[in-house]
Amino acid sequence: MMRPSQPMHALGLAVALGGLVLLGAAGRPAAEAAPGAARGPLAWMQQAVGLTDQQVEAIRASAGPLREQMWQVRLALGDARGELRAAMAQDPPSPAAIQAAKDKIKALLGQRLDLMVDLRLAVRQHLTPEQRAKLAQLMAERRARWLDQRP
């Protein structure tokens, strides 16, 4: 089985970290959260790398706009994939419709990658060098466990 290359590992880390931040802030009424109180995966990150309450708040503030953009891209990507499935199901399939759907999906995947990198950079600016090193170590361990569990 082929193992991902180093750039793919870096991309995986960016996606995982971005997902942690996005999930930690997603879908919670503001009344539930005390200022600085981390929830979900952000709570894990706070405990694992020693984030302060101020860092948690700063990360939430940085991630908020990106989180909304990620949600919109995710919805659009689902719609575009549905369009591709519909184009493929036509009898006979229209090469132009299939290509248009593929182009739309490629553009949305590029937007998603851009947002994930922006999110990683936004989180990174709030971490100390020691916290960044600890998070990288933990994510590498998590990635190794995930790769070992794959069939």
Can you offer a commentary on this structure?
The longest helix has 37 residues, at 53-89. The chain is mainly α and 151 residues long. The chain has helices spanning 6-25, 40-49, 53-89, 95-124, 129-149. Residues 1-16 and 21-33 have low confidence and may be disordered. It has five helices and no strands. It has a domain at 53-151: Four Helix Bundle (Hemerythrin (Met), subunit A) (Up-down Bundle), CATH 1.20.120.
Second-tier CATH architecture of the domain at 53-151 = Up-down Bundle
Q: What portion of residues belong to β-strands?
A: under 5%
State the name of the first-level CATH class of the domain at 53-151.
Answer: Mainly Alpha
Write down the overall geometry.
Answer: elongated
Count of individual helical segments: 5
Describe the largest sheet: none
Q: How many strands?
A: 0
**Radius of gyration of CA atoms, rounded to a whole number:** 18 Å
Kindly state the mean pLDDT as a whole number? 81
The computed structural class is: mainly alpha
The SSE order reads HHHHH
Q: In angstroms, what separates the terminal alpha carbons?
A: 9 Å
